[in-house]
Amino acid sequence: MFLFDSAHSYRLFRDHALNRVRDSPSSFASFPPRTSELELQSHWFSGAFGNEFVSTCGQTVRITRFGEWNRLGGPDFKHTAVEIDGKQLTGAIELDPEPEDWERHGHSTNPAFDNVVLHVFGGGGPSARRFFTRTSDHRNVVQVRLDLDLVNTHGRDRPPARAIHGRCSHRIQELEGVALESLLQSAARHRLDHKARRFARSAQIHGWDQAIFEGIAEALGYHPNQLPMRVLAQRHPLKDLLGQPALRREATLFGSAGFLDAAGHDTARPATRSYLRNLWEEWWRLRDSASVLPGIRWSMNGIRPLNHPHRRLGALATLLSVWPDFRSILPTPNQTSADWPRRIITFLSTTQHPQWSRHYTLSSAPSPSPLAIFGKERIHDILGNVLFPVAVHHDPGQWSAYERLAGGKINEKLERAATRILGAHANKANYVKPYYRQQALLQIYDDFCLEDTTHCVNCPFPEQLRQWT
């Protein structure tokens, strides 16, 4: 199991502070995470919550087969296998945001749900009112409440903290350089450890290649479209896509995403018309078996052309076309070359596609100059959020290479975090250059600034810093 001692130190440091103040209602309000049903299902199917649980009645529950994600009516996951207190059961699993959704959605009177062997839900904390799940034939269904902290859903829908110098910034400036570096390293290791564990849980269920594929799809999605990209990669697993000809792969992805419309082909620009028609020729044969995925909603408003979902999906299709060569560079449990990050950067930055090296979207005019399929920021995101967590899981010594990874573009959230935590620190510019320090600042911001509802007045972080040596 991958675990850094300093990551554990930060976890204890954070939990001690938050647990201490949460006893005071004036310091922290309790906001339930608002996580959509589709997002919960996606996290569940990826293995983000693991495969061993304790039911609401204290039974031991182990998922031995996650089954198939149902695209039609009925329970969410079919053909599953569940072991409850050592007894093997086969059937379906239903997953809801709240336990009461079983009744709200009419499952208790619908015979299609009579073969459900496990009801999984994300809401209703341990102190919530007890709710029983029963089928139309009055059979009680075992319940499992998910630990949403495993997927960092807390604080996601809260407004950003104000871009001011926080009270902690004065304490930070009093820390010796070694102590501040120790804090940032520990927070960064904690964040990396969390990501590594997530990929390890997914790999345990679906294999490392699929876990990496889903992670890259999510990283390509840009923030508003991360979930749709991940769901698409889950509904069309890597092994299935690699077994198809290249054009059929692309048709499957674009068609399932809802981006292929026969009515628009004749009005498309000449340079794109042929590409669309070829995709459609494949898609119309696949529609019945690979229909447009329900529940996927793409965000188009305010998206820059380089971040458009068409283009990001084109990048995923391009990567599939060179997957064997790409996979040969990645670190493995038995082999991790020292120069693999440099080779990944070179490989991705030079990868091309006949359509997507010249077009932003399926309807845009050709670009006068070539477009990078994988831009510098996307490559950094893939390295930092996907490939390094996997590499460090296999070899903790890869942390030193992670430390050398240059920081990405300073976006609004990172600038806000640096302003609140570092304030007017003399070396602020240097502290936000390396990627791992950027991740550390974001972790502290998520754990303290976004959890605080008192505009910094009662945040425990400044006082907790006294305990950091």
Q: Could you characterize what this model shows?
A:
By secondary structure, the protein is of the alpha/beta class. The chain folds into two domains: 1-30 and 163-469, no CATH class; 37-151, no CATH class. It has 19 helices and seven strands. It has helices spanning 5-21, 37-46, 101-104, 167-174, 177-206, 208-220, 226-235, 238-242, 246-256, 270-286, 309-321, 323-329, 340-350, 376-394, 399-403, 412-422, 428-431, 435-449, 461-464; strands spanning 52-54, 60-65, 68-69, 77-84, 87-96, 116-121, 142-145. Strands 1, 2, 3, 4, 5, 6 and 7 form a seven-stranded mixed β-sheet that branches. Strand 1 and strand 2 form a beta hairpin. Helix 2 packs across helix 7 and helix 16 crosses helix 18 (435-449). The longest helix has 30 residues, at 177-206. Residues 25-33 have low confidence and may be disordered.
Write the layout of secondary structure elements.
Elements: H1 5-21, H2 37-46, E1 52-54, E2 60-65, E3 68-69, E4 77-84, E5 87-96, H3 101-104, E6 116-121, E7 142-145, H4 167-174, H5 177-206, H6 208-220, H7 226-235, H8 238-242, H9 246-256, H10 270-286, H11 309-321, H12 323-329, H13 340-350, H14 376-394, H15 399-403, H16 412-422, H17 428-431, H18 435-449, H19 461-464
Parallel strand pairs: 5-6, 6-7
Antiparallel strand pairs: 1-2, 2-4, 3-4, 4-5
Helix pairs in contact: 1-5, 2-7, 4-16, 5-6, 5-14, 5-18, 6-7, 6-14, 9-10, 9-11, 13-14, 16-18
- Helix-residue proportion: 40-55%
First-last Cα distance: 27 Å
Basic shape: globular
Backbone CA Rg: 24 Å
Class of secondary structure makeup: alpha/beta
Number of strands: 7
Proportion of residues in β-strands: 5-15%
Please, how many domains?
A: 2
Largest pleated sheet: 7 strands, mixed
Report the total helices: 19
Tell me the series of helices and strands, N- to C-terminal.
Answer: HHEEEEEHEEHHHHHHHHHHHHHHHH
In terms of per-residue confidence, which ranges show pLDDT below 50 for 5 or more consecutive residues? Answer: 25-33
- Mean pLDDT reading: 87
